[in-house]
């Protein structure tokens, strides 16, 4: 799942797309909005309730009988939180262990319990979690940002449009809250995730670690 292509990474194989990936969001925001205004947009987005965010979605994606909800940590049922963390651990533990970051269960639990967390949760007909996104509204190097910390999909629900549906919801939330940039962090050896985000028109961000920094991840971004 996480192997490189023969002699090339995914991004090397689509090099022309990376070369063209000037960070338009960075340059377009600066002349248009003062920094304090950008911070106000982020604060306004963070001040919205889960219900208010849900009401911003004009076109909720449909994937079979799945139900999509938007939650903060405080209004997320504990049963769903446990299922979400178990899904994350099942999908990612071995990959974190392979990375320079390592796997720290307690730190990840703490991260997912932070009051700034927002979640998009996909559940099936019996109410079990089949996918989720952990995201936050923030500032990223002076840019308004909707940062996706996690997009996880259960193995038996992959390639059915769940991940694409989550991205569509994220795009609508960013647009309606006037947050102009979506960010994700992806391990360089995560071939499937890189393919997915390239398909969703994400590009390597200007501030992704440079080659000489020897980082094992990319920062990808998409302008809204």
From TrEMBL:
Residues 82-223 form the N-acetyltransferase domain. Its EC number is 2.3.1.257. It is an enzyme of class 2 (transferase). The keyword Transferase applies. GO terms for molecular function: histone H2A acetyltransferase activity; histone H4 acetyltransferase activity; protein N-terminal-serine acetyltransferase activity. One of its GO terms (cellular component) is cytoplasm. Pfam families: Acetyltransf_1 (PF00583). InterPro entries: Acyl_CoA_acyltransferase (IPR016181), GNAT_dom (IPR000182), NAA40 (IPR039949). Gene3D superfamilies: 3.40.630.30. Keywords: Acyltransferase, Cytoplasm, Nucleus, Transferase. It catalyses: N-terminal L-seryl-[histone H4] + acetyl-CoA = N-terminal N(alpha)-acetyl-L-seryl-[histone H4] + CoA + H(+); N-terminal L-seryl-[histone H2A] + acetyl-CoA = N-terminal N(alpha)-acetyl-L-seryl-[histone H2A] + CoA + H(+). Transmembrane segments: none annotated. It is found in: Cytoplasm; Nucleus. Coiled coil: none annotated. The keyword Transferase applies. SUPFAM superfamilies: Acyl-CoA N-acyltransferases (Nat) (SSF55729). Its main location: cytoplasm. Belongs to the acetyltransferase family. NAA40 subfamily. This is N-alpha-acetyltransferase 40. It comes from Trichinella zimbabwensis. The gene is naa40.
């Amino acid at each position: 799942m996480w192997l490189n292509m023969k002699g090339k990474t995914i991004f090397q194989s689509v090099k022309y797309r990376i070369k063209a990936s000037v960070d338009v969001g960075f340059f377009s925001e600066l002349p248009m909005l003062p920094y304090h205004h950008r911070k106000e947009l982020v604060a306004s987005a963070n001040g919205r309730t889960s219900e208010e965010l849900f009401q911003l979605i004009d076109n909720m994606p449909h994937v079979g009988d799945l139900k999509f909800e938007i939650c903060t940590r405080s209004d997320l049922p504990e049963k769903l939180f446990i299922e979400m963390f178990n899904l994350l651990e099942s999908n990612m533990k071995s990959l974190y262990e392979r990375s320079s970051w390592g796997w720290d269960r307690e730190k990840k639990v703490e991260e997912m319990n932070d009051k700034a967390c927002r979640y998009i949760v996909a559940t099936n007909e019996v109410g079990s979690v089949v996918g989720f996104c952990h995201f936050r509204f923030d500032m990223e190097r002076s840019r308004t940002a909707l940062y996706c910390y996690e997009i996880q999909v259960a193995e038996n629900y992959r390639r059915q449009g769940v991940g694409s549906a989550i991205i569509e919801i994220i795009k609508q939330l960013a647009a309606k809250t006037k947050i102009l940039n979506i960010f994700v962090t992806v391990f360089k050896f995560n071939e499937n995730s890189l393919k997915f985000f390239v398909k969703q028109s994400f590009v390597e961000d200007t501030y992704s670690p440079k080659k000489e920094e020897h980082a094992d991840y990319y920062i990808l971004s998409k302008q809204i």
